[in-house]
Amino acid sequence: MFSKASKTTQTTNKSGSHGTEKKGGLSVINADLRVTGDLISESDVQVDGSVNGDIRTRTLTIGQSGEVRGEIVAEKIRICGTVIGQVRAKDVSLSDTARMIGDILHESLSIEPGAHIEGHCRRIESAADEGGLTVIQAGQVVAANVKKENK
Q: Which string of DSSP letters, residue by residue, matches 53-81?
């Protein structure tokens, strides 16, 4: 009588905590993987391969062999590889191996000596607003909070 009830309770608890771990986990794009299309995640993403598309996530790390061609919107971004496109985040960090071609919109920015940047860096008050895009041409904001179409 006592052992059956406790086994059922233990099984339920294990299942509940397992579901929580998946939501907060880390998604990795390995060095030998090429992705064409947009990536959207509510957890953390690490790119060691190649992504040709926009990325929206909570925390993004681009490894030394990683390359992203597209817009990146996140709360926190660490760039060690190559980014070609606009970056918008609350906290942006470029390592000495980073190669950034495009504009950076940030609240906090750190750049290690040796990082390569071609583009404008602009401090903004709230980088992760409502998920709208900011369109910049020739260093000027053309449109702000543009919603992306879902296809």
A: S-EEEEEEEE-TT-EEES-EEEEEEEESS
Cα distance between residue 35 and residue 38, in whole Å: 8
Residue type, 148: K
- 3-class secondary-structure state, position 2: helix
Is 32 in contact with 49 (CB distance < 8 Å)? Answer: yes
Global pTM reads: 0.68
> By 3-state DSSP, what share of the chain in percent is helix, strand and coil, each rounded to 5?
15, 50, 35
Residue with tokens 């817009």: 71
Q: What is the pLDDT along the chain (151 residues), one digit of tens a residue?
A: 455 544 444 444 444 444 434 466 889 999 999 999 999 998 899 999 999 999 999 999 999 999 999 999 999 999 999 999 999 999 999 999 999 999 999 999 999 999 999 999 999 876 444 455 555 555 555 555 555 555 4
